[in-house]
Amino acid sequence: YKRLHQLRTSLVFCDFIGSGLRHVANDLSHAEAKSKLTRLVKRWPNATCATAKCQEVMRSGRHFANFTATWPGEDIKIGIMRPIRGWSQKRNAGLFDPSHYSPSFPDDEGGYIDFCEDQMVGYEGGHHSYFLSLATGQIGAFGPLGVNSIIEAWSTLEIMKEDKTVGLLLDLDKGELSVFIGKRPFGVKIRGIVGHFCWAAVIMANQSRDQALHETVWNETAVCIERAPVPEA
After folding, report:
1. Could you give the angle at the alpha carbon of 130 between the alpha carbons of 38 and 42, nearest 5°?
2. pLDDT truncated to tens, each residue of the chain (233 aa)?
3. How many CB atoms lie within 10 A of CB 224?
4. pTM higher than 0.70, yes or no?
5. How far is CA 127 from CA 70, 98, 118, 194, in A?
6. Of 154, 188, 185, nearest to 167 (Cα)?
7. What is the rounded CA–CA span in Å between residue 160 and residue 98?
8. Residue 163 CA from chain centroid, whole number
9. Half-sphere exposure of 3 (CA within 13 A, CB side)
10. 96: Cβ contacts below 8 Å, ≥ 6 apart
11. Which residue from 87, 135, 130 is spatially nearest to 110, judged by alpha carbons?
12. Beta-carbon count within 10 A of 98 CB
């Protein structure tokens, strides 16, 4: 019953694309990267990268979500991507980052773009995902032909280190995405958004050398999503 109630009332990560992710303590709103769950370690032996996506599709109106991340210097990206219902390749994706296209892994992200380009209603517009990197502060858009566009790189990283709750306000009536850190507004960062989207988080975990233990360990990374009231203008 608790799981069903959460599905109906909360924002939850119902869809994992790529390997290496799982829910934390059966909490559907909390996802973590675990190295031992990664399937394609030979393809990228020192890291895992996959995407946790919400099932709820946002078609119009204003929507607000808080993302709270824990990361020891690793990269988490939060933002929006297409619903991709019916994309058969997503179950076979190994390393998947819809905010970035790499020629080294064309089948995963490239298949996502090909699917989006073939759709009609809800997929119109120039880009199919928009993400904010919590490690670099960059906001990027990913569109047709695997074009990566860095929209803005902003210097709020010190604030992020103090307050790891970052809010995103998506206004589909205006086509805008705004950023909040804690409760502090940082303005509209993206304009021109068109179509249907879902909340999502790209989660990475890398290997590093533990000097105290004298061994290589995995930095495990997690992010939690929460529905929140739309901030007043």
Report:
1. 20
2. 555 554 567 899 999 988 778 898 889 999 988 755 444 444 445 566 789 999 899 999 999 999 998 654 457 899 999 998 877 666 555 678 887 755 444 455 557 878 888 887 888 877 889 998 887 778 888 876 555 666 665 555 555 665 578 999 999 999 999 988 877 888 888 888 999 999 999 988 765 555 555 555 556 688 999 998 887 76
3. 20
4. yes
5. 28, 11, 13, 8
6. 185
7. 23
8. 19
9. 7
10. 17, 18, 49, 50, 51, 90, 108, 109, 112
11. 87
12. 28
How many degrees, rounded to 5, is the angle at CA 207 between CA 25 and CA 182? 55
Half-sphere exposure of 111 (CA within 13 A, CB side): 18
In sequence order, what are the beta bridge partners of 185?
Answer: 180
Q: What is the DSSP string of 150-173?
A: EEEE-S-HHHHHH--EEEEEEETT
**Cα–Cα distance, 31 to 51 (Å, whole number):** 10
